[in-house]
Design brief:
The chain is mainly alpha-helical. The protein is 81% helix and 0% strand.
């Protein structure tokens, strides 16, 4: 039982705000770079499967970072209140982004034409939120 607690404490020590922040920055940059490459060359490649996995891991790491920030922040001072507000804004943005991604993909898939101008709004919505803007 004591060995389990020691291992759990070591795992908790790894998930500090600093470590998760570095991982989040690396994953987000990789997602943006791979997203731009995908926009430039949309042909199928194994790289796009990796991009999807990185995008999903990046989402969960960002949510973990928001949780750690909200858990460790001191809301008594001005900076803590501001950081807390930014965290809540990020959570609302992520919900909006996921809904927009789903609606953009749905509207792209139900259009009968393959012309880009007719699907411009759907493509714009999808790409806009894939890149995280």
């Amino acid at each position: 039982m004591i060995d389990f607690k020691n291992k759990l404490n070591k795992i908790i020590e790894i998930f500090t705000i600093k470590n998760v922040s570095y991982l989040s920055v690396v994953l987000n940059l990789a997602s943006i770079i791979l997203g731009i490459i995908y926009l430039v060359k949309p042909l199928y490649s194994f790289l796009w499967d990796v991009f999807g996995i990185i995008l999903l891991i990046s989402l969960f790491v960002n949510l973990l970072l928001v949780y750690l920030n909200l858990d460790k922040i001191n809301n008594a001072n001005r900076l803590g209140k501001r950081t807390s507000l930014i965290c809540y804004f990020y959570l609302v943005f992520m919900i909006f982004a996921m809904l927009s991604l789903m609606s953009g993909n749905l509207s792209t898939s139900v259009t009968y034409s393959n012309e880009g101008i007719e699907n411009f709004g759907a493509y714009l919505t999808t790409y806009f939120f894939i890149l995280g803007f």
